[in-house]
Amino acid sequence: MKGMGNMMKQAQKLQTKMLKLQEELAGKSVEATSGGGMIKVVANGKQQILSIQIEKEVVDPEDVEMLQDLIMAAVNDALGKAQDMVSGEMGKLTGGMNIPGLM
């Protein structure tokens, strides 16, 4: 039973570290662009979009679909980078263990 107690303590420590890491990741951000930098999207470690910047030159009322595609590309890239950032940090914390339900 002593081994089980140690395992529970380790699990609690890991949980505490994970909560702290999640708070830290919420304060970190990643940036993605599309259209040669005409669209810029910033996302945080909670995979929330913080900002979207669109240069005037890319706004063409005759081609709204292109603008939508550029925004979608930048948003998807930003969210992918945010997820990679979270996965990398969680991997450092868990030592690369694949623990279901962590991410």
Walk me through this protein's architecture.
The protein has helices at 2-26, 64-94, and strands at residues 29-34, 39-44, 49-54. The chain has one domain (2-94): 2-Layer Sandwich (Ybab, Chain: A), CATH 3.30.1310.10. With 103 residues, the protein is an alpha+beta fold. It contains two helices and three strands. A three-stranded antiparallel β-sheet has the order 1-2-3. The mean pLDDT is 88.
Q: What fraction of the residues are assigned to beta strands by DSSP?
A: 15-25%
What is the mean pLDDT?
A: 88
- What is the annotated CATH architecture? 2-Layer Sandwich
Radius of gyration: 19 Å
Shape: rod-shaped
Quote the CATH topology. Answer: Ybab, Chain: A
- Tell me the number of strands: 3
Number of domains: 1
Strand order of the largest sheet: 1-2-3
Highest-level CATH class: Alpha Beta
Alpha-beta classification: alpha+beta
Distance between the termini: 30 Å
Q: For this structure, what is the CATH homologous superfamily?
A: Nucleoid-associated protein YbaB-like domain
Largest sheet, in brief, is:
3 strands, antiparallel
List the total number of helices.
Answer: 2
Model regions low in confidence, pLDDT < 50 over at least 5 residues: none
Portion of residues within helices: 40-55%
